[in-house]
Amino acid sequence: IEENGWPLLFSALTTMAALFSFLLIPIRPIRWVGVSAASLVGVTYLLVIILLPSLLSFGKDREPENRYAEKEDRLLERILDRLGHRILSRPKIILVLFVLFTVICLLGISKFEVASDYRRTMGLKIPYIARIDAISKTPVGSLYAYDVAIEFVRAGAAKDPENLRKFEQLVDEVKTFELTKKVGSLLDIIKDMNQVLNNEDPAFYRIPERREMIAQLLLLYEQAGGVEAENWVDYEYQRLRLMVEISDYNSKEATRELRLIEQRAKALFPGAKVVLIGSTAQFSVMIDYVTWGQMRSFFIALVVVGLLMIVVFGSVKIGLIAMIPNVSPALAVGGIMGFAGIPLDIMTVTIVPMLLGLAVDDTIHFITHYQLEYARTGSYKTSTRRVFKTVGVALFLTSMVLVLNFSAYLASLAKAYIHMGILVPVGILAALAADYFMTPVLFDYFRPFTKGEQQKK
To answer: Are 142 and 136 in contact (CB under 8 A)?
Structure first.
């Protein structure tokens, strides 16, 4: 406990800080995941630090044996020992490769997009999604839709010919949008009734000139048993509704079209209240929440973890070096998402903060033991070999366990879980590689440990 107590404590604190950053994303399920996961980490730490030593204390004490130290090193220990010996002999190659890795990942990050398309997040192998997709490709079906509601200041304004013509102008503009498949509104009923009452003359498929005529057409429609009008206008004729069904989903284009509709509606009806509703509008708002929430949560978690690192190791230089392995998973995951076309959705948004919490644990243990070995030997080269041979083995094994656990998601039919089964192992391996290669090289270059470290021996 004396030797590993502080690393365990700060590993728990940094992991909890990374998970609590989910609270910055204003989506309730993600917030719940952050709070519950952080709480479980805290409970696990208490069990490890209190219950585990108590359980290990059972049994009789005996004299320590040195036979294990005399045994021949295991294969993994020999491999990591050789790796630790060779890393410091090629620092320039490692730095160049890391810079190249960073540039490539940044290019990938610039390509990834935020999306909430069922077909991209879940995949067509899910029967329910496949049926929805099949229906959406028929002339009468659509995958997504949104509504535009316009509320006038006074009752009866929805019968005014001037307002209906402005509404028709808005509908005609919506029909020209790239994603629009078909639209529905009160205008269809008024135009159909006007044409029917004028001997089916196509020239009368238009809005009547007089308000009284519009009122008579709507009254006649209701008396004839028509019920669809109530879907497009309220009883007081103060609110109009336009439904837009879209043929496909593109997050950027959908957001652009929704903003354009809102701007045009407000320009055509200055005194009216314009509201966008429906699944597509909700996705557009959620995309903003996910995007900015993800950025805020990651950078705030990064700052908090960085400050904790500085406190843990008592050095700004060591704390900043320690952040390299914690940034590497975000770079790797973001790069793969961009190049592979994996969208940032409600599932993938949780990956980077989670990886930050996982990566920081390994970093703390690696640097803590490195600091301890330097205090014993006073040599960066010797410390590197000893750390690789001891804690390096433990980091490799724990990382492989996590990689295998998350790789089980690859057997899922849902793309969201398959993406997690790819991205999380990649992030874990990126953090491990940064611990193995970048941390020793940076320690040897910046020489952050002083002679006072040897006094801890």
So the answer is: yes
Within its chain, how far is the Cα of 58 from the centroid?
45
- Among all chains, which residue has been given the structure tokens 């941390």? 439
pLDDT digits (tens, 9 = 90+) for 88-105: 888 999 999 999 999 999
Q: Tell me the pTM.
A: 0.78
User: DSSP letter at 155?
Assistant: T
Q: With 0-12 CB in 10 A as exposed, 13-18 as middle and 19+ as buried, what is 337?
A: buried
Rg (CA), the chain: 31
Tell me what percent of the residues of the chain surpass a pLDDT of 90: 42
Stated as kind and residue range, the H or E segment containing 289 is helix 279-313
User: Cα–Cα distance between 105 and 330 in angstroms, integer?
Assistant: 9
Q: Which residues are within 8 A (CB) of 144 and not within 5 positions of it... i.e. 6 or more apart?
A: 245, 246, 249, 278, 279, 280, 283
In this structure, the number of other CB atoms found within 10 A of the CB of residue 62 comes to: 6
Query: Which pairs with CB-CB distance under 8 Å and at least 24 residues apart come from 406-415?
Result: 413/123, 413/125, 413/126, 414/122, 414/123, 414/125, 414/126, 415/120, 415/121, 415/122, 415/123
Here the tokens at position 256 are 């652009």
Alpha-carbon separation of residue 387 from 268, 362, 371, 390, 408 (angstroms): 70, 12, 9, 5, 31
In angstroms, rounded to a whole number, what is the distance separating the alpha carbons of residues 261 and 162? Answer: 19
CA dist., res. 54 & res. 394, Å (int): 23
Using DSSP, state whether 369 is helix, strand or coil: helix
Token duo for residue 264: 């045009």
Among 15, 22, 18, which residue's Cα sits nearest to residue 347? Answer: 22
Mean pLDDT of the chain: 87
Other beta carbons within 10 angstroms of residue 188's beta carbon come to 14
Strands (E), 79-211: 144-151, 180-184
**E strand map for 106-260:** 144-151, 180-184, 239-246
HSE-CB at 450 with a 13 A cutoff on CA atoms is 5
CA distance 6 to 125: 47
Residues 84-143 have pLDDT tens digits of: 888 888 899 999 999 999 999 999 999 877 777 778 888 888 998 888 888 888 888 888
- Classified as helix, coil or strand, 398 is helix
What amino acid is encoded at 304 in this protein? V
Q: Are 23 and 31 in contact (CB under 8 A)?
A: yes
- Give residues with Cβ within 8 angstroms of 103, minimum separation 6: none
- What is the set of domains in the chain, with CATH numbers? 5-49+72-121+288-456 (1.20.1640.10), 143-277 (3.30.70)
